[in-house]
Every structure is written in C-alpha cells, then in structure tokens.
C-alpha cells in the first residue's frame, strides 16, 4: 500500500514514516501543503494522512483542490481541533476519516487499514481465496492452514494483488505502489518478487494464484486459470 | 441606612427641609403678625393711658380726674370693652371706670417711659390686655405752687383683645390650610421632579443589572444622558471593553494553550510508541515512562479544554436516555485493576436498572473522575462504597471511600483548580483538575455535587440530578459533614 503523509511537524512526520514503513506501507511525506497537493495529484495513493494546519496550503484547501481535480484517494485528517464543527467541516471537505492529536499509533494504523480496505471496496480484514487466507490486520498469510513466511515487500505485493483480485495489475502500478523510490527502467525487482511469491504460495498446492499477462501485467485470481488463454502463464 | 435609594434619600431630605422651612417661616410670620397686632394694641392702650394721665391734675388738696366714662364710651358700664383704674400712692383706689363695676384691675405698674403690659382675663370673661404705669399728675397751669413731684399715682388701662385673638386664630387657620396644601403640592412636586430627574440614573442601574460574565459585550448607552452621568458611563464602557478583552484572552488562553500542546504531545507520544514497538529493547522501559508522561499530560490538556469550554458555555450537551446504573457498574469495573492491586473492598449498591436523560459522554466523564478518584485516593485495604438510588424524579449517587489524609479545612478547596493535598501530588495522572471538572460539568448539566468528611475518616461525594432533563444551573458548596 502506498501512503502519502502531509504533516508539517518534522518529528511527528518522522515517527509516522517509521511506523508506517514498519507496518508495511510505502510512504511518501512532505511538510508543505503545496508540495503535498503536487504529490497527491501526481501519484496514486491508497491513502493520504493529512494535517490541517500546514504551511503553504492548509489541509482543507489541499483536500478541496484534490477532490475538485478528481482525486479520490482515501484521506485521513490529522488535527488538534476536536470540535464537532471542525470534524463536520473536515468531512464535508471530502475527508474519509478524522483523528485528533495526540493519538495512539495503533489507532492510526487501524484506521489506515480500514481506509485502505475501503479503497478496494472491502469491509473485511480477511481475504480468503480457496485455501489461501490473508489477514490484512495481522499481515499474516496462510494456505491450507499452514502459515507462509513472507518478507515485507513480498507481503505488500501479495496484499496489493489480492486486493485487486481479478484485475489486471500493470507492472508500472506495482512499481509505483510497492517500489516508489527504488526502481529504474531496467530493474527486474518486480519480476523477481513475483517469482519468489509464487514459489512460496504454491508450495504444497497445485493451484497457482498469480497469472502473468505477458507485456501487460499480472492477475491474481484462481478462477482465471480455467480460461484457455495462451497469454496466461504461471 | 433606612433608605437605600438616592430617590428615597433625596425625597426625604427635600421634604424634610421643605417642611422645616415651611414650619419655621410660618412660625416667624405668625410671630411677626402677632407682634405687630399686639404692638398696635399696646399703642392704643398707651394712648388711652396718656389721655387719662393728661386729664389727671394735682390740685391743692386733691387729685382732679377731669374725665368720666362718657368721655370714652368703651369705659362705660354698658359697653365695657375698656377698663381703667387709678390708685393713690398708698394703694388706695382713686377712681375706676364704670365698666369695672366695682371690681379691681390687677395693680401692676411700670414707669411712664417703660410701662408694663400683660394679658389677663377681663372681668367680663373676655381675654384682655392691660398697660400699667406710675405717673406724677401734672399741676394746673394756673397754680403750680401746690405741685408735688413725688406724688405718684398708679394707672392701669385694660382693653379687650378678643378681636386680636380672633384675627390671630383666623390667620392660624388660613395659614395651616395653606401650609397643608403647599406641603402636599410640594411632596408631589418633589416626588415627580426627582422621579424624572433620576430616571437616567435608574436606566443606568437597570443596564448595569443586565451585565454579567456571560454578557460582557453589553454597553451603557451614552447618548442623551445628563452631564453628571455621561462621563461615568463612558468610563464604565471603557472598563467593560478592557474586562471583556481580558476575559476573552483568558478564555482563549486555556483553549489556545491546550490546542498548542496537542501537537508536541502527539510528537512525544508517537516517538515513544515507535521506540516501544520497534526500538532498542534496552530503551523500551524508558520510552514506556515517556509514553506514560505524555498520556498524563494529554489528560491534563483534555481536562483544561473541557474546563475552558464549560467556562465559555460552549461545551455541547447531547441529551439521550442512558442507563446510569450500567454506566456506574462499568466505571466500577474499570477500576478493577486498582481495586485488586490495593486490596480495596468495593461494595456496590446499584439497582438493576436506572435510566436518566443525560449526555453519555459528560456523564461518563463525571463518573470516571468521581469513581477513579475514590480508587486512587483510597489507601490499601480501604473501602469504597458506591450507592445509587432514585427518588422523586432525581437520582442520588453517593461514593464513599476511606480517606486518611483529608481534613475538614481541605473540603472548601477540593474544587479549586490544581489543588492537591501534598500526599496526592506524587500520584501519577492526578494534577488536581478532576473535581474542578466535576463541578464545571455539574454546572452544565444542572446537577448538584457535594463533598463531606465523616469522623470515621470516610470521604463522601454526593451527586444528584434530575432523571428527566438537563439544563445549565450553578452548583452548591461543600457539605458540613457526612
């Protein structure tokens, strides 16, 4: 999952970056409102954590500009203002959630997970496909009852593909979501990661989960294995 | 002071002065008129006496009185409005007027230059006035060889003063009536004039009555005010401007400082949580302390904000039907760990159901502070007794706990902000705002909270309120004792 943090407090921004990265998110961050708007428009984020009192452009104005431009990323407002009027105003401007400072990191992460599920139209934190089970809250994966150990990036990749189950996910989208700052045009990190993920998921099971559409991307869906499409390969 | 209003004081003073002046003036006028009338009467008597003296002559061997009653009719027996009597030097009666009819006038004499005048009752029963003097009758002009300059006769001439009395009486009656009319008119005039003149003062007073902490934006009107009140009202308006600004600053201060503290508290808390979760194991305990401190500070900030909102009257109240019995039980359950750790004997006397109409969040805050305080301040192996009941449309919650460090002198200070008994200062998370917040919330919800201390070292808090509605009302002071 890719998350943008727009918070002018350097210390808080650093803590959030650390916590979100540790929790398996790819994190972009800035302390300026104008820069935050630029990031939000230029990239596709699963969620944006947005402070209200920002230099340059305040959070509500940023949010308004984002929504008017068609941006529909899930937005969680962070603020010290807790009155009902402030909450209503924030939500009316297009926010999806509201968290008052100071907050428990656990609560922030839980709300973020809920927002990300919402962005993929999911209510449950559990994704179950045949004998594969992905717990989005605990970030654990089991298949056939056995837990599968995945590295953080591998889990992020699996989670991203599973949330977009049945959709063709382009390589560029994977790069942007999972490896935003790390890839150059010649990198094969995505291919390697897909390959490693397939190996770990397919251990002890004959049912492949990730199909490749050559030159286009990947599809995460067991049902598509029945289609006799020559472009599909494991 | 029996009269507390300027209107009353001025009315009494003006009327008293008016009456005194009227009275003094009336008396002086009456005395003047009386004196004049008496003076004229005395002059007439003197003229008559001198006339009689002129007709009294010394002869060689006798005194010749050359007039009789026919000379002045009033001396006549039949008319009898004037009287005279002459005495010899040895006190014998020389002659008397017929009007006396053999009675005697009082023998009182002055001198010719300074006669004596007096009032007395005439023989006819009428009020009279007399002049009395001694004189030496003159000798006949023809033969002055027999004139004895030492031969002094006594003369008293008296006249009826009934007319004078009647005149004075009529004057007294007329003047009394006039005075009463004048006084009555004066009272009305004073009352009406003062009422009109003091109306601006009353308006200023009623305007001042409307000003309180919640209406500091109210100002005194300064147009069309009397010259004496206009500068006072202008100065009062200036003072209100400064007072309102000060109140607003003070109100904003608590709110602003709480808001400003929230971001650094968020920084502190998030840094501590990150280090506790992912940091060096050796440092985790320290960061747990840091997290605890930041949570304590956050609690203070939230309490300050709530107090500030109560002060400003901006704390929202969302009344709902809530189960107070369940809320009390839940709050008692939340102190379970403290109760267990300190081996406190917790007794609940709470009905199965007791519903009230109130704001659930504010009620929870009230219960949290009261029951939490009981647990925090109870000593080990102490007792906490929580009783809840309903009667006559009101709920009554009593929380009693063992308390060994409070005295009766402490009770009035319990609701002061940031007041802590020394023994409580070292307690984590307790900064002395809990009961202040309870008091403020009771004001918002129209509840009553009282505290007391029994002889058996038991601290008691009583919370009561309507089960049907909430509205903002003030709270009452401490109980004298449990």
Globular, elongated, flat, extended or rod-shaped: what is the shape of chain B?
Answer: rod-shaped
Radius of gyration computed on alpha carbons of chain A: 19 Å
Largest sheet of chain B: 5 strands, antiparallel
Q: Kindly report the average pLDDT value of chain A.
A: 84
What helical percentage do the residues of chain B reach? 40-55%
**Percentage of residues in strands of chain A:** 15-25%
Mean pLDDT of chain B: 85
With strands numbered from the N-terminus, the spatial order across the biggest sheet of chain A is: 2-1-3-4-5
Nearest-angstrom radius of gyration of chain B?
A: 51 Å
Gross morphology of chain A: globular
* Separation, N- and C-terminal Cα atoms of chain A: 24 Å
Greatest interface: A-B, 20 and 19 residues
User: How many helix segments of chain B?
Assistant: 8
Unreliable segments of 5+ consecutive residues of chain A? 224-234
Number of DSSP E strands of chain A: 13
Uncertain parts of chain B: 472-482
Number of helices of chain A: 8
Query: Count the strands of chain B?
Result: 15
Keywords:
heterodimer, A: 234 residues, alpha/beta, five-stranded parallel β-sheet, four-stranded antiparallel β-sheet, 39% helix, 23% strand, globular, disordered C terminus, B: 482 residues, alpha+beta, five-stranded antiparallel β-sheet, five-stranded mixed β-sheet, rod-shaped
Describe the structure in your own words.
The complex is a heterodimer of chains A (234) and B (482). Chain A is of the alpha/beta class and 234 residues long. Chain A has helices spanning 10-22, 33-42, 59-68, 84-92, 105-119, 152-163, 171-178, 189-202, and strands spanning 2-6, 26-30, 47-51, 74-79, 97-100, 126-129, 132-135, 140-143, 146-148, 168-170, 210-213, 217-220, 232-233. Mean pLDDT of chain A is 84; it is low at 224-234. Chain B has 482 residues and is an alpha+beta fold. Chain B is built from 8 helices and 15 strands. In chain B, α3 (230-278) packs antiparallel against α4 (284-312), α4 (284-312) packs parallel to α8 and α7 runs antiparallel to α8. In chain B, 25% of the residues are buried.
